[in-house]
Amino acid sequence: GIMPEMLPVIMNSSLAMGAINMSRKKTIVKRLGAIQTFGEMDVFCTDKTGTLTQDEIILEKYMDVLGREDKRILRHAFLNSYFQTGLKNLMDVAIINRAEKEDLSFLKEAYVREDEIPFDFSRRRMSVVLKDKNGKRQLITKGAVEEILSICSFIEIDGEVKEISDELIANAKKIAEENNLEGIRVIAVAQKNNVHGVDVFGVEDESDMVLIGFVGFLDPPKESAGKAIDALRNNGVRTVVLTGDSEGVAINICGRLGFSTEMTLTGAKIDAMNDDELKEACKKCDIFSKLSPYQKQRVVKMFQANGHIVGYMGDGINDSLPLKQADIGISVDNAVDIAKEVADIILLEKDLMVLDEGVVEGRSTFANMSKYLKMSVSGNFGNMFSVLIASIFLPFLPMLPVHILVQNLLNDFAQLGMPFDHVEPNYIEKPKKWDLGGIKGFMVSFGLLSTVLDVLCFLVLWFVFGYNNPDMAGYFQCGWFMFGVISQTMVIHTIRTPKLPFINDRASVQLTLSTLAVIAVTLIIGFTGVSTLFDLPTMPLSYMLWLAILMLVYMVFAQIMKVIYIKRHKDWY
């Protein structure tokens, strides 16, 4: 009897309604449960490129090791990007587009690819081995500045190849860092001509390289990103950036979007921390840079260990691990297949404002499910307690099993409009989680109130109408059946809002219609011959007045109980 029979229907209907509402915002929900998790999310981790930035990477600079423009650097970067057979990222596309504008397309016919050493996130670089028409072989490598410097033994300055020194390395890093602080992402380009004659090349061949210069990319922040981050913050969601870019670029872009840049962590610093140290750092740090996929996954895991519900948004191969680790994975329609496969939600447009709307939708869905659960268990608990009391004092059963079943089903059907109900704006300002203790407390408080009113109904039926012997048991059962259904249906409007029902806040049209329909069906059952279908007699019309009085008393006491409950618990849902 206490079991909320319609719980699966109400929950799935609420989640489906949330998914439909999200679809109108060009968002595909792959897993219905993700709607609820969306509402619970209080930490949102995101990659930088394309999410916080415009996703239109432009090759801004190509320069030698002294920072001077040098078209030869663009030439080598183009050969590397064009001839590699792996997935061409946005930087590769930017290099190729710029090279074609600079009339370097003829290089496509001037070289053939003999081999390549693919990119991976530990090396953070990739190489191609090319041969020109004269049979000369050349190894060209591009990648993150520090990783390229680690494999270079020489440096080219003004056409002269010199042995690299600590001073030259420091100067090269300084040039890259200065550009990073301006928001320009820098990658280094190296090459060597002394290539052995074997057909298969490996990572060990990326050694004794010659650093020749840098290429710099600009990907400015989205104007809408700052607004979206503020909206998420106002709704109790903290945004954290996990990027593979350098620290300088991350600080520049994130600082322009309003992030705190007082504390940042790089992948190298994270590797030097144990889990306890990283958990503590996650409480303060909002910018994590130069991360590998495993490091991103570890950071997400530490946020979860701190008790947060974590969302992660990414679209690249390097995002698949944190997407899977997060409580809710979010990707975009043009993401790589593996990112879309592990994500729970797919955005058809890469817009963070949609995420804020998703958070609001998730919390609204959660609120409506919470309303139903509290209403159902408190009402059913009250009925069962009333049955126990009546069974002690009455000389007959207060209600037959079939009556209890029909009553519960009618009460549940009255709440079928719950997924369509609106939610108080202040409820969605903070993430919510299931609170079993709160549900139990609500069940006891309002369940016992229901029992008190049931006892009043018993007294009316026993003393006013004289249904006080086994021969009149059917009338007693019918009277309590009607009161039980109508009272639990009417109290929906009190419980669904912290405000004064019908006056300060009204239910949605769908919920209003479902409750009116159930009340009408109950009155038809009790006051017409339909009652015989449920082994009940027809009640006298005079009982309608007492029903109305009991309903008024119940609604008044429920409102008083609600005010007391809110003062005590500082919350309603």
Topology diagram in text:
Elements: H1 7-23, E1 27-29, H2 33-40, E2 43-46, E3 58-64, H3 71-83, H4 90-101, H5 107-110, E4 111-120, E5 125-132, E6 137-144, H6 145-149, E7 152-157, E8 160-163, H7 166-181, E9 184-192, E10 209-218, H8 223-234, E11 238-242, H9 247-256, E12 264-266, H10 267-271, H11 275-282, E13 287-289, H12 293-305, E14 310-313, H13 320-325, E15 328-332, H14 337-342, E16 345-347, H15 352-393, H16 401-414, H17 436-464, H18 473-495, H19 509-527, H20 543-569
Parallel strand pairs: 2-11, 2-14, 7-10, 11-13, 12-13, 14-15, 15-16
Antiparallel strand pairs: 1-16, 3-10, 4-5, 5-6, 6-9, 7-8, 9-10
Question: What is the gist of this entry?
Answer:
This protein has 573 residues and is an alpha/beta fold. Helix content is 50%, strand content 16%.
Question: In percent terms, what proportion of residues is strand?
Answer: 15-25%
Biggest sheet details: 8 strands, mixed
Number of strands: 16
Helix and strand composition category: alpha/beta
Report the helical percentage.
Answer: 40-55%
Shape: elongated
Tally of helical runs:
20
Rg, rounded, reads 34 Å
Distance between the termini: 23 Å
How confident overall, as mean pLDDT? 89
Which residues sit in consecutive blocks of at least 5 with pLDDT less than 50? none
Strand order, largest beta sheet: 1-16-15-14-2-11-13-12
Features of this protein?
single chain; 573 residues; alpha/beta; eight-stranded mixed beta sheet; 16 strands; 50% helix; 16% strand
